[in-house]
Structures are given as structure tokens and as C-alpha cells.
Automatic annotation (TrEMBL):
Keyword Hydrolase: yes
Keywords, alphabetical: Endonuclease, Exonuclease, Hydrolase, Nuclease
Domain Endonuclease/exonuclease/phosphatase, chain residue ranges per copy: 24-236
CC annotations in GO: membrane
Listed GO MF terms: endonuclease activity; exonuclease activity
Coiled coil: none
Keyword Hydrolase: yes
InterPro entries noted in UniProt: Endo/exonu/phosph_ase_sf, Endo/exonuclease/phosphatase, GPI-anchor_lipid_remodeler
Any single biological process term in GO: GPI anchor biosynthetic process
Name of the protein in question: Endonuclease/Exonuclease/phosphatase family protein
Pfam families in alphabetical order: Exo_endo_phos
Length: 252
């Protein structure tokens, strides 16, 4: 009787998970924790705690002659597909955005969001086949200055003029103000999403990391992943969203 009961619980959990996508965004801080230690494996452990279907990652060392390849470490630890979107790409050092996903990636585009002489920024734009439904996933890390962010958001939104696919826009938006112009502009294309404090991990004050979904009714909930490990692994907490599957997939 116990075995049958346990099997029923496991089957119910599998069905429930198949009816949603679990999406996460995480600024890795170069895999350097708040204790000052460079520890890619610790980041990998946090990702395995979350067990998301798709991760958008920022501040990722991507290798080079004088730099480690943190993305490769994370790919091997999670056994997920990896897509890189470097914003700094030199023979000595490659660095920027990345996506890890358990689902097939059908297309990849990159968008250069660099603003004047400020630090190079970009967006990684991927079409991902999530079990029969293709989502457009745009992972980004915006700039530190308000004018820079406004220009970058306008550039990103221009690519959504005729959205043929459902869209997830996520990443570290670096917007300190809840009602800042950057967020107000995003609301014109996306439903307002929960603003949960993710930075800094020692004492979270700011909702820098965001997940936006279109159509908005598909967004079920948003949570911060706060554990003993995630508090130390980076200066940002990961942010997790649960997205419902369309009824056509649920009824199969």
C-alpha cells in the first residue's frame, strides 16, 4: 500500500511539473561569492537546487587565454544545453550573458546594447522548444545609468513589434527604482510582474533582477531562491518564475 501511495505522489508531481515551465535568472558575479572566493562549482550547486528548465545567467566568465570557462563548468554540472552571448569577446577574455536549458534551442540571436563609451552590454535572444511550444527567451543585463537603460530598453522593445512567439524577457535590469522609466516602459509591452528584492544577498534591498512574460496571464508566480548556499555564492539571489503550459499541451 505504501509503495502504491508513494508512486501516486511521484506521478502527480511529474504531471504538475509538466504543466509548467520553471524559469530562473541569476547574476553570477563572475562566480565570486560574497566571501571573495571564486567558486564556479558553488554556483552549479545553486543551479541544481533550483532545477529550472531555463536559466538566464549574467556576468558569466566564458573562457579565453587568461580566463576560466565558468559556463562549461555549469553545463557539465547541470547536464543542460548551453548558449553563450558574450558582451566582451577578446582572445584573452570572454565574458557576458548565457542561457542553460533542458530543452532544444532552435535559433539564437544576439543584440548589441552597448551605449556610447560605457561598459559593453547585450541581450541573448533564443527560440527554445519547450516540450511542443516554442518560447522566445531574451536574457539581458542592462547598464548602470538611467539614460543608458532607457536606450537599451527601447532597443530591445523594437524587436517585439510583431511578436510571433510567447516571450520571456529576463535578467538583471539594474533598475533601482520601482517606478523608474525603464520599468514603466516595459509595462507597455508586458504585464507588471512582481518586484522581489534580490540584491545584495547580505541584506536584500533592491529588485534588480526581473522576469517579464507575454502573454502575462501565463505567469503563475515569482519567487526568490533564498538558501544558505545562494546567500554566499553570489551578491544576487536567483529569481524564479513558474509559467503555465497552454491548455492544448495540458490536455494531451
Amino acid at each position: 500500500m505504501t509503495l502504491m501511495h508513494d508512486a501516486g505522489i511521484e506521478e502527480s508531481m511529474t504531471i504538475a511539473r509538466s504543466r509548467e515551465l520553471r524559469i530562473a535568472t541569476y547574476n553570477l558575479h563572475g562566480a565570486v561569492g560574497i566571501d571573495g572566493k571564486f567558486a564556479p562549482e558553488r554556483i552549479g550547486e545553486v543551479l541544481n537546487e533550483i532545477d529550472a528548465d531555463i536559466f538566464a545567467l549574467q556576468e558569466v566568465p566564458l573562457g579565453g587565454a587568461n580566463a576560466p570557462d565558468v559556463l562549461d563548468v555549469l553545463r557539465r554540472m547541470t547536464n543542460l544545453h548551453a548558449v553563450e552571448g558574450p558582451t566582451l569577446d577578446t582572445p584573452a577574455r570572454r565574458y557576458g550573458n548565457a542561457v542553460l536549458t533542458r530543452y532544444p534551442v532552435r535559433a539564437v540571436r544576439t543584440l548589441d546594447l552597448s551605449f556610447r563609451t560605457r561598459e559593453p552590454r547585450g541581450a541573448l535572444d533564443a527560440d527554445i522548444d519547450c516540450g511542443g511550444e516554442t518560447w522566445r527567451v531574451v536574457a539581458t543585463h542592462l547598464g548602470l545609468a538611467s539614460g543608458e537603460r532607457r536606450a537599451q530598453v527601447e532597443q530591445v522593445l523594437q524587436t517585439f513589434d510583431t511578436p510571433a512567439l510567447p516571450v520571456i524577457l529576463l535578467g538583471d535590469l539594474n533598475e533601482w527604482f520601482v517606478y523608474g522609466r525603464t520599468l514603466r516602459r516595459l509595462v507597455t509591452h508586458f504585464h507588471r510582474a512582481s518586484a522581489l528584492r534580490t540584491f545584495p544577498t547580505r541584506y536584500p534591498l533592491f529588485a534588480l533582477d526581473r522576469i517579464w512574460v507575454h502573454p502575462g496571464e501565463r505567469l503563475m508566480r515569482v519567487d526568490v531562491h533564498r538558501t544558505r548556499l545562494s546567500r554566499v555564492a553570489s551578491d544576487h539571489y536567483p529569481l524564479i518564475a513558474r509559467i503555465s503550459a497552454p491548455s492544448t499541451l495540458i490536455d494531451r
